[in-house]
Amino acid sequence: MDKTVVKFFDSVGSFFTGSDVIPWCDSDIVAASDSGACGREVAEAEKGSSDKLKSESIMRLSWALVHSKRPEDVQRGIAMLEVSLAGSNTPLLERERVYLLAVGYFRNAEYSRSRQIVDRCLEIAPDWKQALTLKKAIEDKITKDGVIGIGIAATAVGLVAGGIAAAISARKK
Hints:
By secondary structure, the chain is mainly alpha-helical. The protein contains eight helices and no strands. It is a single-pass membrane protein.
């Protein structure tokens, strides 16, 4: 089969399956209690480790939370990142936190907010491939939602027009 045709069918398939390029995180890693790897690490860091170690372990937990499949985990990760963003003392750390915040909003299907935040991330690092990939994924989701919305509206208009035509046809008989 021609490569163009294969590419077309792959793109149509990914459009309908909703696949994206942002990784997911397993629930055993995400678990914020003592049973989860990241949760354990944060709990241990809270017991007297340096501020740098605490910050790093909270950053890893935030990463795991915003990449979780559970919406409540994603929401918790967003909250943690918003609080920790004020403490970003280097551009690299700010870039990472802003990016993760954009991922969290993307996971929550808040695409316009995610796009605003990823744009902020690209102001810090314009050529960062992860942020550029996330921005494309956001734009693809917005486009897909728009196409689906138009399809639903067109179907509704078609049903209404069909109903009116049937009523007029029935009235003429």
